[in-house]
Amino acid sequence: MANKTRxxxxxxxxxxxxxxxxxxxxxxxxxxxxxxxxNTFQKxxxxxxxxLRKQLKQHVTRIRTDADDTxxxxxxxxxxxxxxxxxxxxxxxxxxxxxxxEFLSLTCTAYPRLTNIVNGVxxxxxxxxxxxxxxxxxxxxxxxxxxxxEEDASVRNTNGKIMETDDFKLAHTGLRYFWELxxxxxxxxxxxxxxxxxxxxxxxxxxxxxxxxxxxxxxPAIPKLIGTYLDHLDSGVFRDELNTIPNEFTIQMKLMKExxxxxxxxxxxxxxxxxxxxxFLEGIQYISESKVEDIGKNYVEAYEKYYRPFMxxxxxxxxxxLVNDVFSNLFPFKGGKQVFDxxxxxxxxxxxxxxxxxxxxxxxxEKFNTDHVIKLIQSFAKVISHxxxxxxxxxxxxxENNFNTMPYMAILLKS
Length: 415
Fold this sequence. Notes:
Elements: E1 5-11, E2 34-36, H1 38-45, H2 50-59, E3 60-62, E4 73-75, H3 94-99, H4 106-110, E5 113-118, E6 121-126, H5 131-138, E7 146-152, E8 162-163, H6 178-189, H7 196-215, H8 222-235, H9 238-243, H10 249-264, H11 271-283, H12 292-311, H13 316-328, H14 339-364, H15 370-385, H16 388-400, H17 406-413
Parallel strand pairs: 1-6, 5-8
Antiparallel strand pairs: 1-7, 2-4, 3-4, 5-6
Helix pairs in contact: 5-15, 6-13, 7-8, 7-14, 7-17, 10-12, 10-14, 11-14, 11-15, 12-14, 14-15
Keywords: Methyltransferase, Transferase
GO molecular function: methyltransferase activity
Protein name: Lysine-N-methylase
């Protein structure tokens, strides 16, 4: 009898990934929140090994807020170094060593693979919080493309979200046009006739209009909105409006430094990210005694002399980052209830990465290279992108200061 299979949609890069084990510069087993699915939690409560069962009861606790079957419990990490308490003396997983991979949670089994289920199809991607995954995802200069394939239905890897856009209950919501919107967003972000910051601004204008249609109950007008934007992209209508956006590097630097500070001083910072942040500060000579004007001047100099010349021929790195994020996080519908809120978070992540890389480029100067970029994006993803509480706090910070507007997003993006 043939094994049952299921459909899979994934970027072509998935074929290239394999864990490099001890050669990796990071560890998967620490430095962030490790969640446990419900089935694994129940399995741990019945662990046949008495000593391990005692450890599991001590270190694995229920999640009491916003829990679901995937995010049902969490592992309490060692307070001294943030490592998983279930690692043995050889820094290997004691559970896997004793019982095999089948005893691991979905998160630990699948990482760095992320799988969402959309209309019954498994959608697989890699998260760039893994160094090797980051290299594979980001460093391909070709436009990211996707494959339809199949896998054995017994594979345990559903560690993301489940979305049914064909549900008749969603007929009057934006999710009705999820696929049309996804295709438009990805094609826009890969439209190399425009600079990447311009694509991001156009996306913001689109998300603002999309939110308006949804709030006014005009969901059937979404395909027409998409068509209008496609026509305008082809005709170049947006270019005049894009040229009116001012360069405000000092404002970019001040806001994003404040956002980054929130995470740096909230505890539990990954060492690799801390090293990158320190390099950013040194690169723009950011010290407490410095005047804002002087820091802004250093920031602009680092951008003009080192970051821009490097990135002009490597804009595909950030393009790949954004497209991968759109696909794996079901943009624009994952996160806040408002599409524009999700766009704001999208911009903040991009802008923080750019800010930090500019400072790092200012430090390393002509020696600034893709190794620095991968280190920053990987550690940023591990520290920032996997921290839902921090991301919610950023949105609140922006709203409190009235920064969550399209004009302000455009200033953050302009470069």
